[in-house]
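Per your request, structure below.
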């Protein structure tokens, strides 16, 4: 259901704090998702340029961006969202399914320790953090089907102390929740959360759950999803999207949001987009 926002209603952005990792060692050397093709050349220089523009876009929008140092031998470390979920200052780390990415989790854990965080939990079950977890302000949407173990959802509820709703992904092109759904505005006491998602990425039961939880959601098209439009980042007003996601951006503008476009074409070769590069730190 598409509902236009009233003319006199203005979306209000909230200042965010993000953790990012530069793609200094970016490469596509293995295949752990359908987007990766090691036979296709990639440019570290272009990846760094695109990542830098994304980082600078956040800063222009008034957000704080902190950086963790990239490590050699970990070409996917740029996708910081996969290494931690932070809600109310509690940190739930990650445990990767692919052995090629396993070492990333410890580097991010150390970053949190070095920056004064003490309530840190490292999961026992496979848990790819904000790749499969989306905080709505009241509850945590939790994806499974390709990466994160369903049992990790219970671990997240215990570690973060927030209610968790499980959602099943069924299309391998949308292997993480953050490739198929993102939160436009978090829930408050005065208003429910708003989300945008691609229905066909989810099982029939999960589609029914999303319809009940978010009857006013923006339902994206396949074209939106295939350009990583569902890997967007919103501050409640400004929505950072891939440059190709103009159709989705137009529909979000009808709801009162302000689309902000960035080029992530090189990063997409590894199956990542704006959100994949962006871990949100909620204190």
């Amino acid at each position: 259901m598409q509902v236009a926002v009233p003319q006199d209603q203005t979306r209000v952005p909230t200042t965010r704090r993000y953790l990012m990792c530069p793609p200094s060692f970016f490469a596509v050397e293995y295949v752990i998702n359908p987007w990766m093709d090691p036979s296709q050349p990639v440019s570290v220089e272009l990846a760094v340029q695109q990542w830098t523009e994304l980082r600078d876009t956040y800063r222009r929008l008034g957000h704080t961006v902190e950086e963790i140092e990239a490590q050699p031998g970990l070409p996917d470390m740029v996708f910081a969202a996969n290494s931690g979920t932070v809600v109310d200052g509690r940190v739930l780390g990650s445990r990767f399914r692919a052995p090629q990415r396993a070492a990333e989790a410890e580097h991010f854990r150390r970053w949190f320790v070095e920056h004064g965080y003490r309530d840190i939990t490292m999961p026992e079950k496979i848990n790819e953090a904000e790749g499969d977890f989306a905080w709505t302000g009241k509850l945590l949407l939790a994806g499974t089907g390709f990466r994160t173990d369903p049992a990790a959802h219970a671990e997240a509820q215990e570690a973060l102390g927030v209610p968790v709703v499980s959602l099943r992904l069924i299309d391998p092109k949308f292997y993480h929740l953050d490739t198929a759904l993102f939160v436009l505005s978090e829930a408050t006491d005065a208003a429910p959360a708003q989300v945008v998602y691609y229905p066909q990425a989810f099982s029939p039961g999960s589609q029914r759950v999303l319809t009940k939880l978010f009857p006013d959601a923006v339902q994206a098209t396949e074209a939106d999803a295939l350009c990583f439009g569902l890997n967007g980042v919103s501050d409640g007003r400004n929505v950072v999207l891939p440059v190709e996601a103009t159709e989705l951006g137009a529909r979000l503008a009808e709801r009162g949001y302000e689309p902000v476009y960035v080029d992530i074409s090189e990063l997409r070769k590894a199956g990542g987009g704006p959100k994949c590069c962006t871990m949100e730190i909620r204190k």
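The longest strand covers residues 140-144.

Regards,
D.
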